[in-house]
């Protein structure tokens, strides 16, 4: 449309005045549209600080929750270790008692026939109750289960690395949103004919890896290990 | 005497996880810092035998810290392990050129941490270890 107006406005047959009027009319009609766009941009820009603030709140909340989970896992770990210690004590105590009974059995010759019979009965009962092999095996099984609980707790703790990785992803999004806001402010400033000097939202600039990813794919570590090995080889030469 | 580790990461979560992982593999003496600047200050004041650092941090990032440690002060030859999300080959290359001893990409396991520490200690033995 503009090119057609330009042709009309600057045509050599003297019709340029009418064309200029048409152009000005069109520009005037555009002003409210541009004002609306400016208002919409300003309105959108004003919402960005709130959005970025909310993203920060998400990071803080996940970090706080992660700390609580880590505290609980530490507590579980401590309790598991405590129970493991107690089991060892019980095992040791059982062995000591078994030795005592054997020592007592060594004194059986000095007993009367009736006492011998009583002692033999007691020893049989004791051995039935405290079958050392069976007891120790049970204790070992319990200990093994507890070690597995400990290991699973550790796995949960390690999986919480996801909090750091997602917080870097969120920070990356925050950074992009902030860039958009700066650009929009610049455009609005230009439209209003003023110079825009934007202050960053955060007093402390945060650092992040925009490509951070929570992945158990070992190929990246394997590639890194190859480079490390090459460096080691060069250094050894 | 125990090896004294310094764990540097701006993420409280990661510092806790790395410290816990170190304890799970038998290393109980750990001090922490939230960025490279704080780490270098603590390293100078308190000393440490082994540095484990993240890369992306405010104030002074991990790579800048490694370069500073390698060029200044009494810890120029200390073992350095980088644990970071940065997994591009170019990043690893840059870190190795800055003379980190080894490199782990997050997320890591305690086993991977132990393997890397063992590999480093074979090459850079710590006298009191």
Features:
heterodimer; A: about 240 residues; mainly alpha; rod-shaped; B: about 130 residues; alpha/beta; five-stranded parallel sheet; 5 helices; about 15% strand
Task: Name the average pLDDT of chain B.
Answer: 94
The most extensive interface, with participating residues per chain, is: A-B, 37 and 36 residues
Query: How much helix is in the residues of chain B?
Result: 40-55%
β-strand number of chain B:
5
The helix-strand sequence of chain B is: EHEHEHEHEH
Rg calculated over all Cα atoms of chain B: 13 Å
Mean of the pLDDT scores of chain A? 84
Helix content range of chain A? over 70%
Structural class of chain A, by secondary structure, is mainly alpha
Helix and strand content put the structural class of chain B at alpha/beta
What would the principal axes of the Cα set say about the shape of chain A?
A: rod-shaped
How would a textbook summarize the main sheet of chain A? none
Kindly report how far apart the N and C termini of chain B lie: 6 Å
Evaluate the radius of gyration of chain A. 40 Å
Shape, per Cα inertia axes of chain B: globular
Spell the H/E element sequence of chain A. Answer: HHHHHH
> Strand order of the main beta sheet of chain B, please?
2-1-3-4-5
Number of helices of chain A: 6
- How many helices of chain B? The count is 5
């Amino acid at each position: 449309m503009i090119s057609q107006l330009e042709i009309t406005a600057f045509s050599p047959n003297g019709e340029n005045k009418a064309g200029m009027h048409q152009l000005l009319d069109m520009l005037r009609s555009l002003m409210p549209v541009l004002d609306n766009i400016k208002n919409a941009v300003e309105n959108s820009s004003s919402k960005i600080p709130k959005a970025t603030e909310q993203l920060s709140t998400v990071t803080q909340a996940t970090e706080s929750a992660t700390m609580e989970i880590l505290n609980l896992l530490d507590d579980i770990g401590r309790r598991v270790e405590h129970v493991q210690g107690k089991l060892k004590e019980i095992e040791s105590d059982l062995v000591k008692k078994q030795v005592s009974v054997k020592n007592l059995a060594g004194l059986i010759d000095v007993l009367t026939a009736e006492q011998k019979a009583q002692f033999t009965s007691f020893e049989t009962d004791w051995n039935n109750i405290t079958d050392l092999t069976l007891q120790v095996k049970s204790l070992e099984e319990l200990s093994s289960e507890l070690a597995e609980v400990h290991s699973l707790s550790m796995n949960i703790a390690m999986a919480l690395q996801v909090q750091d990785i997602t917080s870097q992803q969120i920070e990356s999004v925050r950074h992009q949103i902030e860039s958009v806001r700066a650009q929009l402010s610049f455009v609005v400033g230009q439209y209003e004919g003023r110079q825009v000097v934007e202050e960053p939202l955060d007093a402390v600039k945060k650092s992040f890896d925009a490509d951070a990813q929570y992945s158990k794919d070992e190929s990246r570590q394997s590639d890194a290990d190859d480079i490390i090995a090459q460096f080691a080889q060069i250094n050894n030469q | 005497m125990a090896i004294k580790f310094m764990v540097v990461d701006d993420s409280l979560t990661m510092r806790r996880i790395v410290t816990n992982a170190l304890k799970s593999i038998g290393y109980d003496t750990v001090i922490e810092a939230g960025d490279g600047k704080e780490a270098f200050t603590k390293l100078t004041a308190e000393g440490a035998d082994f540095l484990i650092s993240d890369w992306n941090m405010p104030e002074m990032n991990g790579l800048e810290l490694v370069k500073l440690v390698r060029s200044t002060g009494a810890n120029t030859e200390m073992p350095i392990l980088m644990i970071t999300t940065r997994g591009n080959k170019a990043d690893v290359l840059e870190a190795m050129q800055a003379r980190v001893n080894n490199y782990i990409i997050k997320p890591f396991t305690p086993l991977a941490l132990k393997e890397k520490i063992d590999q480093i200690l074979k090459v850079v033995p710590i006298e009191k270890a």
